Amino acid sequence: MPIVPIAIIAPEVQKQASLHWKPLFDSRVRYERRIEKDFNEAKSDNRVDFFNRFRIGTSVTDGNKWSGRFLYQYADLVHQTPKLNNSEDRSDVIEFNLTTSTMGGTVTVGRQQFVKGVNRLFDEGNFGATGNYFDMLRWRCQNADIFAATAPVQSRGSRFAKFMGGSYNWRLGESMAVFSYDGTKDAKKDLYTFSHLLKQPLKFADLTVEGIGQLGRLGTQPVRAWAGTARLSRALNAKCTFYVDGNIASGGSTGSTRRTFDPLFGSFHGYYGIMDVLSVTNLQELATGISYMPLKRVTLSAEYHRYGLHDATDGLYTNGLQIVKSGAKSLIDTTGHSGTDIGQEFSLESSWKPNKEWTFSGGVGLFQPGRFIRTLVGPTVKDQTWGYLQAQMKF
After folding, report:
1. Second label for 346, Cα 20 to 30 Å away, from 15, 72, 181, 391?
2. Which tens digit of pLDDT belongs to each residue from 305-325?
3. DSSP-based three-state secondary structure for 183
4. What does the H/E/C string look like for 31-85?
5. How many CB atoms neighbour CB 34 within 10 A?
6. Using an 8 Å Cβ cutoff, are 62 and 98 in contact?
7. What Rg do the C-alpha atoms of the chain give, in angstroms?
8. What is the rounded distance in angstroms from the CA atom of residue 133 to the CA atom of residue 123?
């Protein structure tokens, strides 16, 4: 008789303790070709890039109160120009975390990705070879999100970067405050960034608006910067969506105060053109695009972007707050005499997903320089062209 209750309890204990494992795999190869990256035909920079990457790992859950993820990545980057042929290798553990339910929400601790708002401040960065991954402690519930992190694996920026903050969702959108610190050898950077995101369906379209303000210091220089973005999108039918974007970000300086906006770990690819010529720093941009699905698994899109500087005395910035260069010359005119017209970009992109594992994509873009670039580069100025082909298998 004493054996009976043991036989009843043991299966229940075993059920509670069972673990569910799922393999993770992601392999991607991309070919890119870019002509006249520096907008100058006097120096041939017909460049070819091969981005090869694979990720392998596992996720595990007890089906009840906790789960975890482990993901390893190896990336191989090959760069070729008429005068250059080199390669880079990256080997990283990009995810290693545990998540559990506690205090009315969930806590995730360990290396993980972090995306907020409409990706202007924190984004996955996965079009690049590495992506953005953070050693982070994060607690989330229905309306609140509190986090603290360092940035050991990223597409750009400093390995010394740290940040902490929180956000709250209420009836008028999501408000967020972030303190970030970067103790690089060049200059310490302390920033307080405040943002508010509103997504509002209208009768004729969907509206997304985000405003961002920054206070702090770069070395001994005070920082007072801001940025804003707005998108109107309308589904014309079940297969076609049309959208209009506006982006603006401060630049320049007033006296000793720096006005150049810092996008932290925000999106670089796609939001300001698929060619990735510039970022949302010292920028004014208007863009329009259309996305169309001619077949169930095929998407086509076309975009047009018009760019200008917000402050004519500041420069044209690319990824990681770096000023765009043409050869050894930085594209900045502190006198402001070169104007604010950066230029325009036209692009076409498509993707085909034959099944849930495979995705094939490609795109082409043309960037035509405006007065600002033409004045600084001179008579040898040239349009920039770019294209890519990519295949990805993921499960």
Report:
1. 391
2. 999 999 999 999 998 788 999
3. strand
4. EEEEECCCCECCCCCCEEEEEEEEEEEEEEECCCCEEEEEEEEEEEEEEEECCEE
5. 21
6. no
7. 24
8. 10
